[in-house]
Amino acid sequence: MLAIIGGRGLTELANLEITHRQVLRTPYGEPSCAFLFGTLNQHEVIFLARHGYGYTIPPHLVNYRANLWALREQGVNEVVSVATVGGIRADLTPGIIVVPDQIIDYTHGRDATFFDTRDTSYTNVDFTLPYCPRLRRRILRSAAEVQQPCLDGGVYAATQGPRLDSVAEINRYERDGADMVGMTGMPETALAMELEMNYATIAVVVNHAAGRGDSKNGIHMEQVNVAASAAMARVRSILECVVNCDGD
Ligand code: HPA
To answer: 55: pLDDT confidence band, cut at 50, 70 and 90?
Structure first.
């Protein structure tokens, strides 16, 4: 079963035919909100709003472990996450959709692993390819099919938030090799890997990162929200196609 985790601008899926809602509990606490079970383009999916339906949970307070654990418990083995990002690379301008292939973790103090006790055996998960190559390809193919331009690959810098970044921080992320910056990619990506779920992200550029493009002197959240809402109709059409095709 496939799940979609929506972020800013995607707290609901207009094209999802909801069959039921369910509040779930896990050993790690409660997920961000009730899961929506339904069909998208006649395929069963689960939808979860990462920040809650009222968009009330900031990135550093999202219970990523409960979200992923509860999805796994419901039989989910594929997760498409939708996340908004600031564009660092010059071609990542507002409105661009990109499927990252690498991630760097700058977050701290988040519950970042399921292996957090001494009494369970643990493994060092292989994070060489943090995003599932097959699911990435499926997203890219779906985007092409619905004629939505979508860039293949890029390095996502996951920051702590909830504040935005300084110019010096963005310069540092760029020197590190990052192409885009967002606040929710970690630990979500790694937790999905620990649970052996296939996970990939559709990143929507909603602003130039600090110091870039028209963000030389600041970032205006009203513009960010407008850009996010505008892009999500395109993301929805990609998602409709993703659920419809499998694998390679
Ligand atoms: N920085 C960090 N996270 C973000 C940004 C940004 O510029 N835009 C959207 N999420």
So the answer is: confident
Task: Compute, in angstroms, the gap from residue 222 CA to the centroid of ligand 1.
Answer: 13
Least confident of 88-97, 167-176, 222-231: 222-231
Q: Are 225 and 9 in contact (CB under 8 A)?
A: yes
Residues 21, 123: Cα–Cα separation, whole Å: 34
- Domains of the chain plus CATH, in order, are 2-114+123-242 (3.40.50.1580)
Q: How far apart are CA 212 and CA 10, in angstroms?
A: 25
User: Ligand 1 centre from 184 Cα, in Å?
Assistant: 10
Task: Phi first, then psi: give them for residue 92, nearest 5 degrees.
Answer: -95, 80
pLDDT of 15: 84
Per-residue pLDDT band for 11 (boundaries 50, 70, 90) equals: confident
Specify the residue with its C-alpha closest to ligand 1, atom 7.
86
What is residue 248's predicted lDDT score, i.e. its pLDDT? 62
Which atom of ligand 1 is nearest the CA belonging to 183? 3
pTM: 0.96
| CA-proximal residue: ligand 1, atom 8 (nearest) | 86
CA-based diameter of the chain, in Å? 51
107 close to 187: Cβ distance less than 8 angstroms? yes
CA distance 206 to 229: 9
CA 48 to ligand 1 centroid distance, Å: 21
With a pLDDT cut of 90, the percent of the chain lying above it is 89
